[in-house]
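Aim 2, interim progress: modelling of the manganese (II) ion-bound target.
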Amino acid sequence: MGRPRLLVSNDDGYSAEGLHALADALESLGEVWVVAPNREQSAVSHAVTLHRPLRLTRLAERRYTVDGTPTDCVAVALGHLMQGNPPDIVVSGINFGVNMGADVHYSGTVSAAFEGVISGFPAVAVSQQVGEGFTWAHAAAFARRIVEWVLENGLPRDTLLNVNVPLGTPRGVQLTRLGTRRYMEGVIEDRDPRGRRILWIGGGEPIWEAQPGTDFPAVADGFISVTPLHLDMTASSLLEAMRQNPPEWARDERG
Ligand code: MN
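Predicted structure of the complex, ligand included:
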């Protein structure tokens, strides 16, 4: 392979430090293109902008913002900026905060990587735990290592690697499954300054279930968690069970 091209995006927006920590770390691996949202787009999931035009702003050589979602950024990069000159990998992050368990369904960081996967490119999403002793350094260094490995070895079709980096100096790496999280207070009700009722989603501290082999206990124990994710969400074991013993509505010959 010639000099690789790497597409970098995120959901924290172009001004986020983690994006530039990642882009800088990957610079020695090839030609880095950064196409990122012009403002924070965390938790927008895989939203795509279909009902208004998008504006692309060139800030420097191979550095762009889009006034849209992370998915928009990757779509604009692959379908316009890098058309005919595609990247060898899509890397998203470094997100300010972990993306573990069901977070991956809300995460713009992971969705930007999945947008690359949908278009047939290998992808890596990188997120950093937030708290005391916070630094980008370990996540950036590990991102460089794992991206180099993916460039050399590739990934199976329709997969990406979801990386979560703990606070402090990582004790090592664990290969994990997605874990399970519960929020204690799903929706908080309060009053605005004018006395009107307001609702706030995502309140309270998340409680993680410490199932062995999952992402949360790995990060909690100080390890970098790497979870391979698959685009195909088919519940294969349920499908197989239902085919073996079809429910009444699946036996209806009228279809
Ligand atoms: Mn974010």
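Residues 5-179+214-250 form a domain with the Stationary-phase Survival Protein Sure Homolog; Chain: A, fold (CATH 3.40.1210.10). The first strand starts at residue 5 and ends at 9.
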